[in-house]
Fold this sequence. Notes:
alpha+beta
Amino acid sequence: MAISAAQVKELRQRTGAGMMECKKALQEANGDMDKAIEILRKKGIAKAAKKADRVASEGTIAVEVSPDYKCATIVEVNSETDFVAQNENFKNLVEKIKGHISTAGVESVEELYKTTIDNVVFEDYMKAEIAKIGENIVVRRFDKICVEGPGVVNGYVHMGGKIGVVVAASCDKEEVCAAIKDLLKDIAMHIAAMNPKYLDEASIPAEVIEKEKEIAQAQLEKEGKPANIIEKIIPGKIKKFVEENTLLGQKFVKEDKKSVKQVLDEAAKAAGGSAKIIAFVRYELGEGIEKKEEDFAAEVAAQMK
Length: 305
């Protein structure tokens, strides 16, 4: 019997099992949804799936920097509760996931779940961990930054995994990279604290600048400023916007009389060369996830039935 993609999707939503497992179960059940669910339950595949519809919005962000400071990996692994996020089993799992991602050569979570870890498909490995730990656990996202030639990366994790940052710089020679390695970690700390939206002025989309000009003009017109004065004020307001919203323009948290760019330039020059930041990634735990409000007592009562 031909099984449609819609049927597979529905079974996945109802059980949380993998796509191929759902397809096989539906084929075995001749398209009978309830029977397919029963098949998956008998195989134990749906055991962890009962937890799959729960919102995983706690957890941790972890960072791994390679020993040569040429690659950095950042990953967000979510759990349902902060209590489990502090559990040693969960922490060990995150370390395992982080190390696997750093060497697996994958570019998406979908690819990650199809890889093999400890001779097991990663998706099945995670199901076993969910069953062991007792909560829904999700690898939500990850990023890797690597540099080629003279370059250096570093990272920083804040508040025990609530915020994580990786940052990369290119240098004119390796000696400069070695000299700014620790400063790069301080810059990652700055990114965690100040949350710059862009790397530099060139990274800001033209439409964002235009929108800021419109806002500034409307504000100045409301204040009654004449058109010729407004024209002179707006460039200053845009300059301030760029300084406040770009990493290189922001005042460095550890030396607030200088911008991040100035601090980096000075450190590189002292090492006999030059350097520039080329990329950064900042994760904040649970950002964008809609947390599910639940009555804990009611949930426990429901599970006792």
